Every structure is written in C-alpha cells, then in structure tokens.
Amino acid sequence: NVVTPSTVIAELILENPNTAEGQTNEPLVIPLRACVWGTILEINQGLTPKVIMEDPLLDGYLAVILPSGRFPPNEVVSASSPHESGNDSKRHRSDKAE
To answer: Rounded CA gap, 33 and 1, in Å?
Structure first.
C-alpha cells in the first residue's frame, strides 16, 4: 500500500473523560498518520495497548514503511532565511570543507 504523509494508518480510540452528565459517552478518535511518502511493508498485527505501554520503541511500532522520494524533501532543501541567497549558502558549505 502506498502512503502519503496525510494517510491515516491507524486510529487511537480513547474514552472521553469530559462527557457531561446525561450525554452519550462518545470516544475520542485520534488519527495516526504515516507522516512520510512510501510503501507499507508490514503492519504490526501484534499491537496491543499493553505492548505500546511496555515496549513502545521495539514491539510497539505501528507499521514498517519503505520511504520513497527525495530526502530531505524539497521543502526542507529550498528553505532559507530571507537574508540568504542560494550563492551564500553554497559559499558557507565550501568554507566548512576547507
């Protein structure tokens, strides 16, 4: 499956603690987005709330995504302060190499 940064790959559903008395208790749904362009290689089928709490860095992953496209993205590469021109940034890079 191809994903973009805005693709929702999962939803976190929480009980809504702010429900007023007499209202229905609708859960709070938080979309979890891919945040990258790429292809999903694997979805973690063993993901549970317990795993997320106990081992979020290893077994608590949502998915394995193979990134595609440029890195860093064009937005980051072309970002510069209003006081710099393209030539200034090239000059600074060559100064560091010396």
So the answer is: 14
